[in-house]
Amino acid sequence: MSAARRQDDAPTAQRENRERALVAREAARLISEGGIGDHRQASARAASRLGLSGKAAVPSEQELDEALREYQRLFQKDQPRLLRRLREAALEAMRFLEAFSPRLVGAVLEGTADAHTVVSLQVFSDDADAVGRFLYDRAIPARVGARRVRLGGSAWSACTVLSFDADGIPFELLVLPTSALRQPPVVDGDERPVRRGSASRLRQLLEEEG
User: Fold this and answer.
1) CB atoms within 10 A of CB 89
2) What is the spatial distance between Cα 115 and Cα 33, in angstroms, rounded to a whole number?
3) Which residues are CB-contacts of 67 (< 8 A; sequence separation ≥ 6)?
4) How far does CA 81 lie from the centroid of its chain?
5) Fewest C-beta atoms under 10 Å: which of 33, 77, 99, 147?
6) Where is 160: in which H helix or E strand?
7) 20 by DSSP, 3-state: which?
């Protein structure tokens, strides 16, 4: 690439960086104030409100998480306390669901949880109904749904999602086959497998918080 071409590209890259930062900040506000849980939806709505379009204006998950943390630092002074409460509740749920090797995913793990956040866990069983029976036998009423998941290089398939409330905190369990413990799946709405944490990792995070 010639020096002249690089000089021409520089203003474009700077403009795209500014646009992504603007979209990330607006998306963070929509997530925090409007309770939009889907990051792609929040980014799309933010871009539309700002009159921006195209893939170059869509912030990455990392850029959006950074914008969320900055928004919460400035406008949600009680966020650390709420995050700790949700993490403690998640750890208790993971102990309760120990037989299904639970893994924490999403905002509670990443540290960007707020008052609208659902505690999201992945649980694992080759019997798709086993987790539902486990909850039923313990008198925990759960709503049943489904989510599209892609395991390895396979086609998209529907996996069970169980939702319930405990002590006023909403939980969501995505039931996956045990093979997904070794090879994280791609869940509809994500571009790549999400980061996930075990109970020991969550205990470490709580200890670090003090």
Assistant:
1) 17
2) 9
3) 21, 24, 25, 27, 28, 59
4) 19
5) 77
6) strand 156-166
7) helix
The token duo for 9 is: 């590209």
Helix, strand, coil percentages for the chain (3-state, nearest 5): 50, 20, 30
Measuring CA to CA, which residue among 30, 32, 24 is closest to residue 75?
32
Which tops the pLDDT comparison, 170 or 13?
A: 170
Report the C-alpha gap between 38 and 44 in whole angstroms: 10
Rounded CA gap, 166 and 94, in Å?
13
Q: Is the dihedral of CA 94, 97, 102, 108 positive or negative?
A: negative
Taking the whole predicted model, whether its pTM rises above 0.85 is answered as no
Q: Which residues contact 141 (CB under 8 A, 6 or more apart)?
A: 135, 164
The model's pLDDT over 143-190, given as tens digits with 9 standing for 90+, comes to: 999 999 998 777 899 999 999 999 999 999 999 999 999 988 998 877
Rounded CA-CA distance 180/134 in Å is 20
CATH node for 79-209: 3.30.460.10
